[in-house]
Amino acid sequence: MPAIVLCVGIAVLDYVFAVDAIPTRAEKYRARDLTTVGGGIAANAAVAVARLGGRVALATRLGDDSTGDAIVGELEAEGVDCTPSRRFAGRRSPTSAIFVDSKGERLVMSYADPNLPTDPSWLPTQLPTDLGAVLGDTRWPEGAAHLFRLARRRGIPAVLDGDRRPTAEAMDSASHIVFSEQGLTEVTGIDDPAAGLQSLGGRASNWLAVTVGERGVYCLEDGRVIHDPAFPITAVDTLAAGDVWHGAFALGLAEGMPEREAVRFASATSALKCTRFGGRAGAPRRAEVERFLEEHR
Q1: Which residues, including other chains, have CB under 8 Å from residue 29's CB and lie 6 or more apart?
Q2: What is the mean pLDDT of residues 140-159?
């Protein structure tokens, strides 16, 4: 039976433009390519889980608009169960315009309706007995903290994607926190990722790590910072790479992998995604990841 992951957070509709260079002046530009694809941290992670063979559900907040229709339609087509999500009358669904340059780096301009309700009281008060892990982002910390607490009571992993500064409630409720470099710096005030992790070691009870792009991942284990190098690839598009990483990591934990094994599994999944244009549309299937890992033993 496939492991089950519940994701909670943001879902977005992305308009992704391929450009030679990120625009820096107020003038007209032409894109080399364009794709419209669903995005958002939790939603991207959910699609990654589904493509890797896991069962996955998403709890997100959307408006009752055509953008929300497109977001839900694409997620359901990927095999993501959206029944835990809610559509709010009169509200607008999140959307983004994204520019990806010739090196795979991106600039993101996003909009999320500030009037979408943050109250998580409509979320489940009990988790399914066969759930393997919960994954949450920082875009809806109230929802993440609520489901994290339920997961901790059940003794299953509660993984926080700390891409930006998380709330104290979300951090305290998570069993595992994997920061972005920016998120870790915002929490610690320290630019060096290894030193930033080390600074949290004495005051955090969670398993901690930070992803650092092409430099790999730093993990804090037994008070020591351990570096896992990235896989060597030529990046085409880094959009959604971190989200895909977190989805794969949460699935690995849900399947019973030790943390370091789940990190390598997630890094391979993210590396393959980076070789393809189109945000999460480049998320790989399980057989591709297993073949990639075998080739890089």
Answers
A1: 19, 23
A2: 97
